[in-house]
Structure formats: structure tokens, C-alpha cells
Design a protein that fits this description.
The structure is a single chain. This protein has two domains: about 180 residues, Jelly Rolls; about 100 residues, Homeodomain-like (Arc Repressor Mutant, subunit A). It has twelve helices and twelve strands. The protein starts with 10 loop residues before the first strand and ends with a helix. The N terminus is likely disordered. Helices cover about 50% and strands about 20% of the residues. It has about 300 residues and is of the alpha+beta class. α3 packs antiparallel against α6, α4 runs antiparallel to α5 and α6 crosses α7.
């Protein structure tokens, strides 16, 4: 289903705005927000999107209905709902007993725990294809346990190692969540199969993981999938909110960041490994998308 919501009609919610709704104790920075256990409320007004972040919501009690990117989801106890930075949320309605908690984090926050580009893209793909899902009792207990430790470390830990503890626990939460998403995706594929578009998107991400260091064009990946570039962009836009070119850019930038963090590689070597025509062109490409130059990014990490 294509989105029929014009961009100007969508209200953007930043992580700093989310912070205003909860106690300051529940937050580490403007790149990471964790709510306490809260009572969810029905959302009225314009469709909304989380600006520059990913939100994981866990339902602990009650029921809710929501549309994410035009897909209807019914939420109950021990359900997850996931919203990435380009997802559009509409028609969120919940029962009076609906309670749970939210964890919202920016892309740069994920970068700080050195998630491999393949792991991150696979997680993004699964979030796009499965905006909500039930979680088994053992898996939900694992998430609750890590979330409780994470919340406690944010609120009570005042040691010099606080940031490291928070990052380590968030890393554990992220990979536990990714594992759950992968398990659920496998079950869904086995039980009901996937649509043609979902299968093509999955194949595109797999090809991108393998080839993004040397192949940067939409035309290349469309040719490998035996479809037109326009159709590939339509599939990406419909399911992820981004066109194919933006998905490719994201993969290249994540790979570039990972390489720049390696002290043994110069910026010239990184640009050559990523198949850019020159170091200068790579520098302009990186700065346009990240906001700082490769040299400044490398120095800060």
C-alpha cells in the first residue's frame, strides 16, 4: 500500500519533545529516552513520526489499535510496536487499562555501540516489515529484565562508569530485540510466506549488505533483482518510507563510519575502499549526509 499522507500533514516529534512528557530521571540525553511504566493515551490529530529516532514500545497491560505506515496493528499484553525514523503513525486508540513503556533512540546513539552495518540494516528491514508483533513469555521476560537494569542505571548510577554501563545495557537490549525480530520473521515466513514486495526488499537488503562498498547505484541493484529502478524505489518507499537511493546512502554512510573508527585506515583508504572517485568527493558526500567532515568524525571517535 502506498502512503497517501502528504509530508506537510505529518507532525514530527523529536526525542527532546518526548522528554517533556516524562520525568527527567528517565533520560540520558537528547539521543536516548526511556519512559517509566506509563498509561498510554489515544492519539488524536495529524499523523505523526518520530524525528531522527527509533521507538520501541512494549505493552504490559490492556489493548490498543494503531496504524503504522498504513498497516493496522492490534496490540495486547506482551506485544511490541516499533516505529523507525520514517514511519508514520495514525489512529492510535487504546483502552483505559493500556500500560507499557517506551525506549526511543537516535541513529547516532546506535552508532556509538558499534553495531555492524549488516545487523543494523537487517534490524531496520524487520522493523519496516513488522511494525508490531507478539512476544513469547521467555523473550518478554528477557526484554523486561534488561530494560529494568537499563532504567536503574540511568536513574541511580552516578559513578564515572555510568555511560559505559548504559551503553553496554542498551547494546544488550538492542541485540536481544534484534534476535527476537529475526525469530519472529522466520516464523512468519514459514507460516504464511511473504508478499512479492517483501521478498524483493529482503533480497535488496541482502545484496546491499554484500555490495555497498563498491556498488552505489539504484540501477545496479534493480538489475540484479530483474526489476526497474523505479519499481525498486517504490517498494522501498512503501515499506520503509525511504526511496532506494536513500537506503543505499544509509548503508554506505554506516559502512563509512565503521571504517573511519578503525585507527589503521586513513580517510583516503576509506574512500578507496568504498569505491569513491576521489577523497574529495567522498568528503563532500559524507559531510552532506552526516553534517561533519570525515576527518572531524574520525578525530571525535
Amino acid at each position: 500500500m502506498e502512503r497517501k499522507i502528504e509530508q506537510e500533514q505529518v507532525s514530527k516529534i523529536s526525542i527532546s519533545k518526548i522528554r517533556k512528557h516524562f520525568s527527567e530521571e528517565g533520560f540520558r540525553s537528547n539521543d536516548f529516552a526511556m519512559s517509566p511504566l506509563i498509561q498510554f493515551r489515544s492519539m488524536e490529530g495529524n499523523p505523526r513520526t518520530i524525528e531522527g529516532g527509533v521507538t520501541v514500545g512494549i505493552i504490559c497491560n490492556g489493548t490498543a489499535k494503531v496504524k503504522i505506515n498504513g498497516r493496522s496493528c492490534e496490540l495486547r499484553k506482551d506485544y511490541l510496536f516499533l516505529v523507525n525514523e520514517d514511519s508514520v503513525i495514525t489512529n492510535f486508540k487504546c483502552s483505559k487499562a493500556c500500560m507499557g513503556y517506551l525506549i526511543t533512540f537516535s541513529r547516532s546513539f546506535v552508532d556509538s555501540i558499534n553495531v555492524d552495518v549488516t545487523d543494523y540494516m537487517n534490524a531496520q528491514l524487520m522493523v519496516s516489515l513488522m511494525p508490531c508483533m507478539p512476544v513469547s513469555p521467555s523473550d518478554i521476560d528477557s526484554l523486561h529484565g534488561i530494560a529494568a537494569l537499563l532504567s536503574s542505571s540511568i536513574v541511580k548510577n552516578d559513578s564515572v562508569y555510568r555511560d559505559r554501563v548504559v551503553m553496554s545495557l542498551f547494546s544488550a537490549f538492542f541485540f536481544t530485540l534484534t534476535s527476537i525480530l529475526g525469530k519472529y520473521a522466520s516464523q512468519e515466513a514459514h507460516n504464511i510466506g511473504s508478499t512479492k514486495g517483501d521478498k524483493l526488499l529482503s533480497r535488496f537488503i541482502m545484496l546491499l549488505n554484500e555490495n555497498c562498498e563498491r556498488e552505489h547505484s539504484v540501477e545496479y541493484y534493480a538489475r540484479q533483482l530483474d526489476i526497474t529502478p523505479k519499481y525498486l524505489s517504490l517498494i522501498c518507499k512503501t515499506r520503509t518510507g525511504k526511496n532506494a537511493s536513500k537506503v543505499i546512502d544509509d548503508a554506505i554512510i554506516r559502512k563509512a563510519k565503521a571504517l573511519l573508527k578503525q585507527s589503521g585506515l586513513s580517510i583516503l583508504e576509506v574512500s578507496q575502499r568504498l569505491n569513491f572517485v576521489s577523497q574529495s568527493f567522498f568528503g563532500k558526500y559524507f559531510k552532506q549526509r552526516v553534517g561533519i567532515s570525515p576527518s572531524r568524525y574520525k578525530a571525535s571517535h
